[in-house]
Amino acid sequence: MNRLFFITNPKLFQGEKYLYTSDQYFEGWYFKNTNHKNGISFIPGINIEGENRKAFIQVITNATSYFIDYRIDEFKFEINPFRVQIANNIFSEKGIYIDIENQTSNIKIQGEIEYSSSKKIHTSFFHPNIMGPFSYIPFMECNHAILSMQSKINGSITINNSRINFHNDVGYIEKDWGCSFPKSYIWCQGNNFQKSDASFMLSIADIPFKGINFKGVICVIIMNNQEFRFTTYNNTKIIKCDIENDSLNIILKKGHYFLNVESKYDKGMKLLAPIKGKMEKDIFESITSLITVTLKKGNKIIFSDTSRNCGLEIVR
Q1: Which among 55, 56, 151, 186 is placed 20 to 30 Å from 236, CA to CA?
Q2: 70-85 pLDDT, tens per residue?
Q3: Which of 82, 62, 78, 85 is nearest to 157 (CA)?
């Protein structure tokens, strides 16, 4: 299968050729699951740095996080249908099956969650995912894809002796791949809004490109089955991007539309991010933050709501 096939199907494993080289590479999927008060996210992936090739699963909850290493030969993938497997753990668009037992971390996580009624962003040949035409540039340091803005989830996950139940709750799926995470970035995501079933995602990052750096933005809000997108490639301007005492205040402008995002960072849990293929950068993600999103057309407010159980990373 040629490169174009994989670009237009970003959910698939993009890095098969790197399994047999010593190039610097990482690829990871992000499965976030939340109910009215609890959340748990799973990040299955691989990282390659010289002869050091590993698979891993990262787990983040409201109160803690875990990083579990696996041999690279325990990583398997399928194209049709899309599926990623690490040891006994299975991840797909239809659900996840978890069977983690690690004596080093003194952790046992088991359970299953089914996904349905997925809401996806609009795509086309020129915009195969949220990166738009940048998806076709082969030397991007980090690529990003949104696989599901919102899914209905049902099931349960047990961590040691504690169970998290999901009944018609909400899930979110995205992924990243390349050689390194951005040096600095903001990422936030929410789909537990108080007054609506809206879904929201935003990332602002320092992007190296042909010897220069620019601040890139990707942002989507879906409400009432209508998508509003604010991105670098559709001429979105960053009017404000203030971070003070872990409080976030962002204003984006595209044409006559203004998007204001306000949040307070809450209880970040440690994760590892890649630098040149090696999982060695400490980042701290909250999945318990509140995010208030306000969308205006001119001076008219067309959406304003607050989401709980939001994912938020501020890396400086």
Answers
A1: 151
A2: 999 999 999 999 999 9
A3: 62
